[in-house]
Amino acid sequence: MDDELAKVLAGTVDEVKGKLDELSPEQLRKLLAAEKAGAKRTTLIEPIEHAIKEAESGEKGAAGASDDGAAPTDPAAGAEQPVFTQAQFDAALAERETAWAAERDRLVAEAEGKNPPRPRKTKPAVALTIEKGNGDFVARTMKSGAQVQFVDDQDVPLPGLPPMTFGADAFERSGDAVRLARKVTFPNALPANEVSGAFLSTGNGAAAKARLIGAQPIGGGRDVELPAGTLMFAPE
Fold this sequence. Notes:
The chain is of the alpha+beta class. The protein has 6 helices and 9 strands. A 4-stranded antiparallel sheet has the order 2-1-6-7. Strands 3-4-9 form a 3-stranded antiparallel sheet, with helices on one face.
């Protein structure tokens, strides 16, 4: 035992107890061993043992805590699965891979001192319109379901977002219109864009249209849902 601990132990019980909070767990253990081998003061042994337990508990708590003092959490815990099919995810991923490939080709060409390759051709965007002669689309939707295609403010389908198919039980009739009674979850892997509305098709082209009150940003890493009942489809 070093001189510092010897001086502490030479004091009265109250004096020693007043120094316990200043000692490390290792020093406390040495102090306890010296007291048991010497004066054997029970009124001091018990406080030292208690101080050792408190000090060791504090060390374990500090080692097991995360940097911000909170237990680590799983970001995916409790997350709802998107309502899209595997084919729809594959289509969105294929579009992103095409963009990545074009960017890779450009960077390689620049590094080699060549002229960058021409951008890959894509089909021109075409705005959707409601097809004439669709008849009673409400009855067909309530019997067989329908497809929903989301569009931007120019009624152009959003890139990477194929039509979504819903069964008849996903719709509610409202006079000459139908309401989608299911929530819609957009995958965050989509390119950043904004949804302004959607078209409904029962197999013979677009039969009805729903417009959002305000454009809804989607994709770009954002987790976005449209609540059930948001889309009311009616012929224009």
